[in-house]
Amino acid sequence: MDKPLKTPPPYAITSVDHALRAAAMLQMEGGQTVTQVAERLGVARSTAHRLLAMLVYRDFAVQDEHRVYRAGPVLELAAHSQSQVSLLRAAALPHLHRLVDLLDETANLTIRTGDTARFIASVECSQALRVGSREGMVFPAHRTTAGLLLLAGLSESELDEVYAPERYRDRPGDRPDLAALRDELARVGRSGFAVNQERSERGLVAVGVPVRGADGTPQAGLSVSLPGVRYDPHRLRSLVAVLDAAARALEADLAVG
């Protein structure tokens, strides 16, 4: 049986949320200065400095001789992973901002790591009722729009490897029904887009399309997230068309870069 949906806490602790987002930035993108972290979180430099100092104290971050903060022992990823994620995120941000300008809904870029989907960039819309930033969050891949898009790009043997039973020996309830998942991925592959209606979080709908590499393989998912009460299925085709245009523009930028 799958894990339950994620539900935001009723009383969010802003300082904790900021610290976790700062840690995710260091892990996924590499070095950050106090100013960069302050701007991304929308906080004062003094607040960002205190957050980073606590991350250093708890070994989530380290500070180098140039006063740049990097992932510490607790968060270390391979250096090449950081650089690839950082480049992809930097290329995607202008397109995410354009999507928000066009659709006035929160836009996201997501990658897959094994059987999980990780949000590496998120730009919130300005509406009072909106989906908040998911940047740095990790969900089961089969429960997210982008995760389905990226899983749909795998061969049968690759999908078998991702969901090999031995990987779930200690958590059998987390393994999805592979036959049902294959059917769903085939539909996603044929349509070229995916829709997530409350599969990852209650009250949330997301629509996404793949961002493909030079070889045509999906390398990320580009999506918009909106409150379910504002989702109109009759707008689905137009949403997909706008997302497709943004994905093609992002692919062109990545090819040049």
Model description:
This protein folds into 2 domains: 14-71, Orthogonal Bundle (Arc Repressor Mutant, subunit A), CATH 1.10.10; 79-256, GAF domain (Beta-Lactamase, 2-Layer Sandwich). The strands form 2 sheets. The protein has a 6-stranded antiparallel sheet with strand order 5-4-3-8-7-6, with helices on both faces. The chain is globular, with a radius of gyration of 18 Å. The model has no long low-confidence stretch (mean pLDDT 90). Helix 2 (34-41) packs across helix 3 (45-57) and helix 4 (79-103) crosses helix 8 (236-256). The longest helix is centred in the middle third of the chain and has 25 residues, at 79-103. The chain has helices at residues 14-29, 34-41, 45-57, 79-103, 145-151, 156-162, 178-191, 236-256, and strands at residues 61-63, 69-71, 106-113, 116-123, 138-140, 194-197, 204-212, 218-227. It has 257 residues and is of the alpha+beta class.
Query: Mean pLDDT, nearest integer?
Result: 90
Poorly predicted regions are none
**H/E element sequence:** HHHEEHEEEHHHEEEH
User: How far apart are the termini?
Assistant: 43 Å
In short:
The protein is of the alpha+beta class and 257 residues long. Helix content is 43%, strand content 19%. Strands 5-4-3-8-7-6 form a six-stranded antiparallel sheet, sandwiched between helices. It has a two-stranded antiparallel ribbon with strand order 1-2.
Structural descriptors:
257 residues; alpha+beta; Arc Repressor Mutant, subunit A; Beta-Lactamase; 2 domains; six-stranded antiparallel sheet; two-stranded antiparallel ribbon; 8 helices; 19% strand
